[in-house]
Recover the amino acids of this structure.
């Protein structure tokens, strides 16, 4: 199972390609039927969670299962990874410049299968931009039938950072986004004097109300699915641990994850390489008055920097992400471009006044390469690989919602087939895959099988990256934390590091067995080209203005949970 960048694209998404109107979107019975079936699957999955796990489903522990629980994300070995990017800007953002068609064309050129246009929310965008960008997205869908192009929004989360919010094309999708932005965008609320600042703490209740609104649109049959991913969560430290937990609990089928790796990866290219000389991801902000005080930089650790290009929340073993997983909370990570202005491009923003038009106008070609830009094109460096059986809008979103996701930089890998299963007793013989949950009898063994598809060709930098090592990381599931601002999981560790043979071709197979399992646990996998590691094999803290992103490549896969029975 893998993703190739030079592959023929199939056409099983024609029911929505090139049009906002999904033929089933206006059929309330059809939408309700699919929603009922999805709910039935979710209910069956929840029955298998076990009483040791809190914060799942509607934010409470499930009852102890009777008999054999139902596995979540059962392994099939047949899914195919589709590469995408859920964080892309156009001229309809006040700090970006490209036409929709340009971003869509570049995404197709660099091998993406799906993408989300996410212009910044705000008063001007809500009043002027939506009506301008919508037909352009529809036209790009028509012109690029092999690329799924979603319309979304970069939401100014009240009381926090930014987030991607998006829905599949449907009769109500644009109006849902329009109403959501008007009622719940932090910048709009600040302009209306309903909050002190977009990021001030008095906005937190609005954020929870907003997520419940999206959940209600799905439950009411107006949309089939809606998703939210928190963007660049540690950049300014204003996404506190309790906010992340609250988002997840408020709408667990909508608020499903965060950028494990932010965009703006070219920002760290040194000046002597004709780069901007900034920090990767533009993670060079000092703490603000709204930053969570627990993110306290030290001489050896700085939460406001990236590590191997990945957000500190994700990169630190036993850190904030692991603290969520240790509670048994499904919370997924992704990788995006956050493309605004592309390094060494010759275009600069148009001269149209954004505040009164919602657009920066047609970009101007200066004929001079811009070395101060900090972004890459969609698909050029970052990819979010989603396992799906069909190339459709809803299927990709279901894969994202289920956590069947790998965040990858520089085409380090094409995909990874993960299979986790109990090896004896009454465990599930098929096992489960990424984002899944299985079970084992107390004292039994759990086998992990990884089949990693190695880079099949050169990346955008012209080199074929070499995967050097793979880490299997695991920690116990200990239940809900008493302190909702918990940001560490001290029992989580790297349980095995696999060295990938230098001569490996096409794929590599790795196995590990957890023996005599006594406690519910989770596992996750990361990998590296091995170029920049500390003494423990962890990524190094990125130095502002001194990072070639292609010289330090990583992937992070989402977790699998294992419940102990008996």
């Amino acid at each position: 199972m893998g993703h190739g960048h030079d592959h023929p694209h199939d056409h099983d998404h024609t029911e929505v390609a090139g049009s906002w109107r999904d033929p089933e979107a206006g059929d309330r019975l059809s939408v309700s039927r699919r929603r009922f079936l999805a709910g039935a699957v979710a209910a069956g999955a929840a029955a298998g969670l076990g009483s040791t796990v809190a914060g799942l489903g509607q934010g409470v522990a499930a009852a102890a299962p009777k008999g054999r629980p139902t596995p979540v994300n059962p392994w099939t070995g047949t899914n195919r990874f589709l590469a995408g990017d859920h964080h892309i800007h156009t001229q309809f953002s006040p700090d970006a410049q490209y036409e929709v068609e340009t971003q869509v064309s570049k995404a197709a050129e660099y091998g993406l299968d799906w993408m989300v246009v996410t212009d910044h929310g705000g008063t001007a965008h809500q009043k002027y931009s939506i009506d301008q960008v919508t037909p352009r997205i529809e036209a790009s869908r028509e012109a690029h039938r092999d690329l799924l192009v979603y319309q979304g929004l970069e939401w100014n989360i009240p009381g926090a950072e930014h987030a991607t919010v998006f829905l599949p094309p449907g009769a109500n999708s644009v109006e849902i986004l329009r109403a959501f932005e008007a009622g719940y965008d932090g910048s709009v609320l600040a302009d209306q004097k309903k909050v002190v600042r977009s990021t001030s703490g008095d906005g937190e209740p609005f954020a929870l109300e907003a997520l419940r609104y999206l959940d209600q649109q799905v439950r009411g049959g107006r949309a089939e699915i809606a998703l939210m991913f928190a963007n660049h969560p540690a950049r300014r430290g204003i996404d506190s641990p309790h906010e992340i937990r609250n988002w997840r609990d408020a709408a667990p089928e909508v608020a499903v994850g965060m950028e494990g790796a932010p965009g703006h990866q070219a920002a760290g290219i040194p000046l002597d390489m004709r780069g901007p000389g900034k920090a990767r991801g533009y993670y060079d902000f000092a703490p603000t008055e709204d930053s969570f005080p627990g993110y306290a930089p030290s001489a050896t650790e700085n939460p406001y920097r990236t590590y191997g290009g990945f957000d500190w929340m994700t990169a630190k073993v036993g850190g904030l992400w692991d603290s969520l997983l240790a509670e048994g909370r499904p919370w997924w990570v992704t990788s995006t471009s956050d493309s605004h202005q592309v390094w060494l491009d010759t275009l600069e923003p148009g001269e149209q006044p954004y505040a009164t038009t919602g657009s920066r106008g047609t970009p101007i070609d200066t004929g001079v390469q811009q070395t101060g830009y900090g972004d890459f094109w969609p698909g050029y460096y970052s990819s979010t690989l989603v396992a799906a059986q069909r190339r459709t809008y809803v299927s990709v979103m279901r894969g994202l919602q289920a956590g069947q996701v790998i965040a990858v930089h520089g085409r380090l890998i094409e995909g990874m087939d993960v299979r986790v299963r109990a090896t004896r007793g009454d465990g599930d013989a098929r096992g489960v895959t990424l984002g899944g949950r299985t079970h084992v009898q107390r004292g039994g063994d759990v086998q992990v099988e990884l089949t990693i598809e190695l880079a099949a060709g050169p990346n955008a930098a012209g080199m074929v990256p070499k995967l050097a090592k793979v880490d299997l990381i695991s920690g116990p599931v200990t239940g809900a934390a008493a302190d909702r601002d918990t940001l560490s999981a001290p029992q989580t560790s790297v349980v095995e590091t696999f060295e990938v043979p230098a001569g490996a071709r096409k794929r590599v197979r790795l196995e590990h067995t957890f023996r005599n399992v006594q406690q519910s646990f989770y596992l996750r996998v990361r990998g590296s080209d091995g170029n920049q590691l500390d003494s423990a094999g962890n990524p190094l803290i990125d130095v502002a203005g001194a990072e070639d992103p292609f010289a330090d490549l990583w992937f992070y896969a989402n977790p699998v949970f294992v419940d102990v029975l008996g």
Q: What stands out?
A: The CA atoms of residues 68 and 185 lie 44 Å apart. The chain has two domains: 30-77+413-565, 78-402. DSSP finds eleven helices and 23 strands in the chain.
